[in-house]
Structure to design on (1824 residues):
């Protein structure tokens, strides 16, 4: 079972205006083969399908707590996409829809995201291809699954870096900055799990690609707070046994700020979700939503 | 952000022996168009893309808390699939793999689920077609999205009923029994949301299909405990405002045990996950896992 | 069996010049999840799979006659796409193909539609994703199928509105205007069918989204002629029994011009198909088609 | 625009009992690459995208009238699938759904067709893969499109033959017998069109595969009535000009009963649709449909 | 078994600067339904599945040697794509990735090709849809497969022509020029095979579309060297028996430079592969590859 | 460019009778995510997209020569599938197709493989899902691509083992035995490449899964001949520089017969292709192929 906390893992700056092609770039990090739907889907099904959970607790806990964190990553990128597609929103009433008010949407890269999702996020990549089962590996063989996950996180890092390199506005850059730090933790964690099981010091392959997080200004504050050394337990008091893998014996990767690895009991503080204003002219939440707001207000009062 | 509780929403009886075709039937409820990946995917992206959250809190809360519950449904069906495919597991060591020990896997309906997932669950339907974005509706228009969700839950109920009608063994039947009760709550909840917003008493269409839950023995204990009248808040203390929709003014559907609807603060008790034993001959978690278990044991101790 | 009448349901103005991105937008209404291929595919298979046709004649007739109309909608949108992609056509002979005469096609949103379809329509959405079976619901349960159809028509209306909001030129706007009126009839009709069967006044949810057709100038002439109150029987003398659902007891929706609903015996007059001139430089119908035209002329004469 | 006549092109014998694997075989002829959805989809979009219709009337008419006939083929195969999956139907009331009344559905080849379509037809092939745009060729180049169509009909004939070779019961065999005769006409017609345009006597490649229709008893009555020499105009009085291609100058293929080719004004007589009884235990049209039937009866009376 | 020769079938000029939309156009010729992955995939599986190889040697040899050539076509187009996406490469070290150095990649048609493939080629079409099994016909019926192949080559020619018509820069034009000549040979060869087997002079349908290669300057040098009359045996000394089909009795097509057809023992000379420089800022082969180069150098020396 | 040698890499015993479900199991090794189409597709595009080929010769050569070998693996598995589906073939003439001669094909797991491919192989997995671009990783980042390849080979080994465990008849077992040995070489080779580049002794993770090849009798003869220590250069005299990676410094994996690694100049001897007899009743190569054989014989003579 899962409990949601109504906060994002990181706070995202509101974009000043819509930037649908930047949103489309972020979609690669959401629904691409090496995106967050994939990290989520892989670890989720590996966790559900895990055999000998009791005998392999530290590894079960590792896959499980990272899976829970990935849910929050899907949430974070989705918010980024939604904010970038719509900008601050547009609660203008009485838009004259006969004047082609969204003419420019014809020329954005993924026009269908406007037509179908009203600018919201969906599980597709930056070319609008759907996420699907071919992006999931859940063999039940522990070494194979961990190795796959290690490779997946390295691939995810590469994709985040490339998406980052195309973005100028702060919302998307912040998404990348945060995910780069957390993805590095996950790559590191899977590497340590493999090392414990096989003796191979595979964490020495990191970072892949060969560029330190320090080159990315948006990563700095997360490095400063030690996020790169922390594995959060998104399932307190469960999963404490991940400390067997991500423990004090192990330290930060050479290129990152030094320090011991630590398991944190619970999630990070995270940040507030930006309030996504409506876009009435695009029928989100509807064309003339005043009555809707009135009803909601009454229901809200009644619920208190 | 999301916290995982390491329990299932319902306790599932361990099957006595593998039943891969029953597992394949359950896959329809996992990865089919009207399965749990769809309810999850739809409500998740609707929640992430929700506009005017503040002004529409009771509706945002409704979609969001049901989405969180759906995660647990995906978890539940996945466990059912995994248990049915492998039965109680088979920790036999030194399986002679040259003797075609899994010959019978050639003839199960979805042989690929053995080859690729070792009998684990994956986001595909009962014919092995992948779940994908075409099963997601997240338009941003509140009425449209709620109407879609209402239709989705009715379709999900029909599919659960048909899958149930093919199952003889208890694991899969329990999955269906539990999900039928909870799915009815969700259909009811979306109906009430639509009624509040439009004045249309659409909950009077329920139950669809036209058969009461009372006809299904496996639903009985959940009805007895009042599960059909409860909306759990998987996100305490958030989402309390769903009481505006699912509140004491409203009562259980006519065919179900009577009583007032209630919002429960937190998740249900749920049940313990069955321990999924390994299947060493199928390399899950591996062929000769003793050393692996030793390592895990040491790491576990170290983590205490 | 089906008979074709060589006219469109509405007459479309010829565009003055090609506008491939507008054509790409229209593709959403052709091959998208909520497009005309979907309304066609859903009602077609529901009609073919219909059980107890005799006992449920008014409902069988309803699904069947709307399905037949949808064929004409697919035809209409396809013509719109084809006209917009190619403009009035370009029968220039002796195009020097070595001079990159279609260089600009490299930058249109869906360049593949030029390469593969020569600018013609195809069953894909505005992002070029294929229409497929995941967009078809045909459960055989009558309430479920009708409810699905009602939701589908509401979704279709939303998509038509958003596409319309991106279009400046008249061909595509006319397609949207016509389809919006007819789609409203279908939503209304499915609502009435559900009301007859369940007692729920679900038609009061209309219009969804919450904007009257009167806001769309291109709808006006169709409203004036009462199209919004008419259900055509595309299968005379069959399907007369749809009058049981769409009958004089029922009237137009509140926001539309008032009047009684009526079943029309036969199709609307419709309009002439625009003659789609060739585009010889793009090999449609071929590079040097004169001889082809000669042959066709002789065969035509012979056929008289 | 299209008018539906509520009859099948051929009358199908009711199967005595359900035969889902035979239905699954027929699905190849419905949703496979060389199935009827493909012939429909190809000719439909070719017809809608046709350029220089006026100058190429006999060819436009040919593609268009065959497209209209294909709609009836999709209808015919769909009925075959639906009849085979459900047999004569099962209007038993009060099925005890807790007794696994559909246990055997777990082991049929395409179990999902029971769960999702209640045994109805859907646009998928015999392995449940969806029909999609990759099965559509509509280039706008007339020679290319006709050549594609000729190859498509030859492939369709091969698939029909192979499906036929697996079927023992009469419903599916009748479907194959009828379609083989009509498919031969279409192959022949496209061959003649190519011959008129290019001078190549490509009809001499027929029949492909190299076996005469006479070897198939189910074809005999259609050959006797001359169906193999007739092109129906599903769109009277339009498309008369196809006589320029399929005319009296041309005669039946050598292996078939001799005679002149002829264009028939209007559709064939066809046969009655079998009444598909409900399957109440499978919720089609619903579990307890009596009230539904009552309502329908009243509405029907009212419509007279 | 297959041996690779490290040369391209034709030498491609290096583009002066990146042109991603031109690369995206070329993708149609790589992963589209009528692209080189399709010709490869069709002939490959037809060759592997060929029955009665011994008795049908000339036809087996024909399909097999053309399949081997197609591998080189996939190679050639892939190089074209890769060169166009990246231009001459950019081995700049110390790119400041925080300055959005690839901002323009956000707006290219297929941005995902930058994120995922670093500008490399992949088996997708010009709209990024994946190549897949629906593009493969391998029925085992010889006439059917050959007829399919003939139609496939005609379709491929049309697509090459249209792609060519959008290209201004020399790299892509050279790819098209070369492939047009070789594709014409394949269409011709399949036509002759069909003629030998059925007596139908189907090669008289060529060229389709109706435009001679002479209209394309980039074809000229290949015509001059007689490439259009040559079938290479990519599998010496095997496949000599293709001379039974492509023999001296047969001559070049009327519109092409005259001469006897000839079977060449071995591959063409081909051209050198352009050296694809790295793009370090895009992490290809990596951000700071100097050490990598050093290691490779040492290993290379050791290997001598 | 590529030259084909008309031999298989290993000789396969002819099956005594058809075994379509065994063939379907082998399809996982052909078109599955971890099958030979994937190893082929990944290394092929990585090789074509390789940047700084000159500076990274040993690594370019490694990917390239393994890619060439994979072509032969696709060939080998395809032959296995084709042989198993059809058994020794059935050249019976005058099969009475009206007697349902292939009735049993209705019940095989992937009936579509009979209808569409006549029992031949196709790029689909064991559940008939198509191979596609989501199974290709070609990032251009050398470490990432090699790491992916290492994980891919481990996954491939697991899948081969599981397929092997379901097979009783010798044809499929031989395919598995051979591929297991060669796949181990590839995993080992990619591990060494990574070790040279990163210093991480990742080859110590092998074998994954944790079972030695010695447990598989079918591997024995290949181990005896030292195949596990050999990297063949499928591209002589090119790619000699792979000796920098797979050189005499390195030795066989601990569990395998000991010895130095060696690069072999050219392909292995391989084995003869079994002659696949026709299946005339299934129209492969056709129903009455005698004339076809006659023609081929004459053409063959003429070619000498």
């Amino acid at each position: 079972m899962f409990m949601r906390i109504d906060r994002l893992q990181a706070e995202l700056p509101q974009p000043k205006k819509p930037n649908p092609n930047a949103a489309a770039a972020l979609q690669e990090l959401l629904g691409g083969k090496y995106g967050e739907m994939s990290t989520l889907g892989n670890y989720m099904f590996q966790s559900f399908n895990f055999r000998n959970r009791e005998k392999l607790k530290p590894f079960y806990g590792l896959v499980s707590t990272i899976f829970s964190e990935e849910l929050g990553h899907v949430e974070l990128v989705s918010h980024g996409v939604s904010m970038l597609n719509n900008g601050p929103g547009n609660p203008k009433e009485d838009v004259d829809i006969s004047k082609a008010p969204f003419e420019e949407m014809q020329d954005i890269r993924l026009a269908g995201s406007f037509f179908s999702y009203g600018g919201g996020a969906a599980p597709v990549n930056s070319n609008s291809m759907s996420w699907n089962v071919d992006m999931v590996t859940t063999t039940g063989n522990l070494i194979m699954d961990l190795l796959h996950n290690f490779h997946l996180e390295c691939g995810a890092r590469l994709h985040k870096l490339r998406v980052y390199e195309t973005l100028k506005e702060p919302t998307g850059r912040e998404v990348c900055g945060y995910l780069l730090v957390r993805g590095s933790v996950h790559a590191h964690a899977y590497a340590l799990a493999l090392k414990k099981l096989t003796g191979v010091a595979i964490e020495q392959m990191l970072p892949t690609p060969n560029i330190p997080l320090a080159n990315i200004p948006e990563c700095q504050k997360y490095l400063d707070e030690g996020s790169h050394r922390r594995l959060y337990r998104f399932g307190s008091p469960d999963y404490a046994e991940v400390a067997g893998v991500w423990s004090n014996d192990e330290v930060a990767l050479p290129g990152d700020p030094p320090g011991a690895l630590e398991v944190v009991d619970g999630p990070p503080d995270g940040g507030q979700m930006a309030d996504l204003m409506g876009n009435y002219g695009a029928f989100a939440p509807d064309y003339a939503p005043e009555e809707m707001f009135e009803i909601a207000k009454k229901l809200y009062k009644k619920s208190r």
